[in-house]
Amino acid sequence: MKKTDMASLISAAAAGDSVAIERLCYQYRPVLHHLRQLYWLRLYDDDNWEQEARWACYLAAKEYDTRYHLTFGRFYQTRLKHRIITLLRRQFAVKRRCDQYAVRYRNLENIADRHRSLQQTETMAMATLKADIALYYEQLSKFERQVFYCILHYHSNAEIAQHLACLEDQVYGAASRCRLKMRLYMTL
């Protein structure tokens, strides 16, 4: 785009021309995508992000001056980034901590449906996992079973070695074999 075309587009956007603002936002859409990858705003969907981008574009067009020795794209990026940081500050403000757990009313039904389906899926997955663990456990030697049991109860290798009256290297080897057998069993 030519410099004069860009200047007229920026001045039209500064005057409040919604078509000019949309064109500028479309042209600098990669800026928005980049910032969306860097920041996460709670309860913000695509429409919310685009609305914030349009607002930042309008304000950037109003405040932009060619004497800044910055391109409009860089100025807009800075303006949008500062807007996002302001929103993040508001989101994490101490006096709004209770809002952190708030859910939109229209989303409650979707959340309940997802929760029900997850419960059913988790129940089936747990039944399968229990059967799989029993089969995996049968593949271990007696010593590996003892080490595996101790590992599941958050004991260190030194504690396990002392409890089983063996060397720490033996415990380390048994734990390695347990992991290897687990990987092999899970890939079947």
TrEMBL record:
Keywords: Transcription, Transcription regulation. SUPFAM superfamilies: C-terminal effector domain of the bipartite response regulators (SSF46894), Sigma2 domain of RNA polymerase sigma factors (SSF88946). GO terms for biological process: DNA-templated transcription initiation. The keyword Ligase does not apply. GO terms for molecular function: DNA binding; DNA-binding transcription factor activity. This is RNA polymerase sigma-70 region 2 domain-containing protein.
